Amino acid sequence: AIGDIVVFHPPAGAETNTCAIRPPAGQACATPDRRSSKELFVKRIVAGPGDRISISHGHVIRNATLASEDFISPCGDQPEGCDFPRTFTVAAGRYYMLGDNRGASDDSRYWGPVAPASIIGRVQRVGP
After folding, report:
1. Distance CA 45, CA 52 (A)
2. Which residues contact residue 18 at a Cβ distance below 8 angstroms, ignoring those fewer than 6 apart?
3. Model confidence at 111, in pLDDT bands (50, 70, 90)?
4. What residue ranges in the chain does DSSP mark as E strands?
5. Which residues pair with residue 119 across a beta bridge?
């Protein structure tokens, strides 16, 4: 679900922040490599299949609504990677993952959305 923190195998190319198809200027990666990496990543689901998203100052705009994300670290003076104003639609059967430290996270902005079969599990908080 949107907002869940999950453990997953990102698309191949995640290790080098490579998108399978280079996106147009101002758009985050929308088309990942079909293969999965052997690496494990932990990120937050910020959009699901069919959602239309763009990113402004590290904040997700999902379906024309600014997502409530008071938990993220601001981008600060690192504007590269924090602004992708060109809206795109997350493909069917894919989830868009972003790190909470948006100014320093390697995530779906660079290598694209993740297939559900690549998701290993959800992170759950233990303790108070």
Report:
1. 14
2. 33, 110, 111
3. very high
4. 5-8, 41-47, 52-56, 59-62, 65-66, 84-89, 96-98, 119-122
5. 8
Distance CA 81, CA 56 (A): 10
pLDDT tens digits for 84-100? 999 999 999 999 999 99
Q: Which residues pair with 41 in a beta bridge?
A: 8
User: What is the rounded CA–CA span in Å between residue 81 and residue 106?
Assistant: 9
Place of tokens 């088309």: 31
Alpha helices in 1-128 (DSSP H): 108-111
Task: Determine the Cα–Cα distance for residues 56 and 123; give it in Å rounded to an integer.
Answer: 26
Q: Output the furthest CA–CA distance in the chain (Å, rounded).
A: 44
Asked whether the predicted pLDDT for residue 74 surpasses 90, the reply is no
Give the separation between CA 59 and CA 33, rounded to whole angstroms.
25
